[in-house]
Amino acid sequence: MKSQKVLRPKWKNKADYKDAIDFQPVTKLSESHPQLAAKNPLELFSLYYSDELRRLIIGESVKYARQKNNQQFTLDECQLDIFVAVLIFSVYHSLPCERMYWCRDEDVDVSFVSSRMSRKRFEDVKKISSPC
Which of 16, 50, 58, 83 is buried most, with the most CB atoms less than 10 Å from its CB? Predict the structure, then answer.
């Protein structure tokens, strides 16, 4: 018996599109959603990060902690807000290592983060809030 040859896809440097890509002109936010154009970034963020979402995140995080036998884990809205703020802040103020946000060295001191939440607490919330 001959062994069957395994067919493997051949990779190419460029894609061959069968259908034309329909390009739509980009519309400005002020034209597509004029009610949003006058809002500042915090107001826009608040449209999605509502009190209901905060309560859901807290409830599910505490429930997950209990499932993982962490009976002492608690989280309140203020701590969650600080945690989310640190995550957002770290996007535009990036450092080579997450732990450096709590470093007190003169050239990296980020007191905005370290004065609001301890590194241990941040890591605890992160571990529970993002189990993957």
Answer: 83
